[in-house]
Automatic annotation (TrEMBL):
<protein>
    <recommendedName>
        <fullName>Glycosyltransferase 2-like domain-containing protein</fullName>
    </recommendedName>
</protein>
<dbReference type="InterPro" id="IPR001173">
    <property type="entry name" value="Glyco_trans_2-like"/>
</dbReference>
<dbReference type="Pfam" id="PF00535">
    <property type="entry name" value="Glycos_transf_2"/>
</dbReference>
<feature type="domain" description="Glycosyltransferase 2-like">
    <location>
        <begin position="16"/>
        <end position="145"/>
    </location>
</feature>
<dbReference type="InterPro" id="IPR029044">
    <property type="entry name" value="Nucleotide-diphossugar_trans"/>
</dbReference>
């Protein structure tokens, strides 16, 4: 499966990594929209089905039977950061253009083609962020922040082959259990894997023509309310993990990247944000992370 396209006479190899966790209702549409958004490019599409307990794998394989460039990779553990590592270190081909997509999204026409073209036009960027469609919740403010701050979007993004090559060369991996792979990758891209060199506007591009669509939550839907509350807890966990890990990276370098996001110093977690709407979710996140750390410590003690 060596699908290639030509750009200005040079062969271009594109690989798309799709993260899928219990997405039986979304995965087929997502894969088909990815294929349709390739334009004149061809690509290998890897469905990283991690820890799925529904029919995600079955439905993804159904699509793969009709499209020879689609592979379904089953990973027993449901962990997006681990799935990122598996693709990057086991399936990524050197010098290929890697594009990462969340499997619950649908892409607009030529989204992947446009983000690849943007990469060729602005090859100085370590990563290229995509753009949310205008009909989503908070889309306008999100778009504004992306353009002003050159934020990293984890929904759909491209990493420059030279940049991911450096990541692999120095064996940088995302910590297992990390919530917010996008925040960490944004930090790595903005710093160019260096200490005290945070320059997002120089190192992260934003392609306004690579548009992804997402379903807004419904206020009157009980299932959507539960999903919203789970997301808020995850956002608090992300905040606490990043606040405990990134300062160590800034002070000591990437050698201090933990293997597991639950490995943190006793006093490393940030304070609860009491004077905000986050405080309840911060309390839950703090308890969750502390409990995970205690479980890991006990396992280590029992092994000695």
């Amino acid at each position: 499966m060596n699908q290639q396209a030509t750009k200005t006479g040079v062969e271009v190899k594109v690989q798309v990594c799709v993260f899928a966790y219990n997405l039986e209702n979304e995965i087929e549409g997502s894969i088909l929209s990815i294929i349709e958004s390739l334009g004149n490019y061809e690509a290998e599409v890897f469905i990283m089905a991690n820890g799925c307990r529904d029919k995600t794998v079955e439905k993804a394989r159904k699509v793969a039977q009709q499209h020879a460039n689609v592979q379904v990779i089953e990973i027993p553990v449901g962990d997006k950061s681990n799935a990122w590592n598996v693709f990057t270190y086991q399936y990524y081909t050197k010098n290929a253009i890697p594009i990462y997509v969340d499997g619950d999204l649908e892409l607009s026409d030529d989204a992947i083609s446009n983000i690849i073209d943007y990469h060729f036009k602005y090859s100085q960027y370590n990563s290229i962020s995509s753009f949310p469609w205008e009909h989503g919740r908070n889309a306008l403010s999100w778009r504004k922040d992306l353009l002003e701050q050159h934020q990293f979007t984890g929904s759909l993004y491209l990493l420059a082959p030279s940049f991911i090559g450096k990541i692999i060369d120095i064996n940088v991996r995302l910590p297992f259990g990390l919530i917010g792979d996008d925040s960490m990758l944004g930090y790595l891209a903005a710093t160019d894997l260096k200490q005290n060199s945070d320059l997002p506007k120089e190192r992260i591009g934003v392609c306004q023509d690579a548009i992804f669509k997402y379903e807004s939550l419904k206020l009157l839907s009980f299932s959507d309310i539960k999903l919203y509350l789970r997301r808020r807890v995850r956002y608090s966990i992300r905040y606490m993990q990043q606040s405990s890990i990134v300062p160590q990276l800034k002070q000591h370098g990437l050698s201090y990247m933990p293997d597991n996001a639950s490995y943190f110093e006793k006093d490393a977690l940030p304070p609860i944000r009491w004077a905000s709407s986050n405080f309840i979710f911060d309390l839950i996140a703090n308890y969750t992370l502390t409990n995970k750390k205690n479980v890991i410590n006990k396992r280590v003690e029992d092994s000695h």
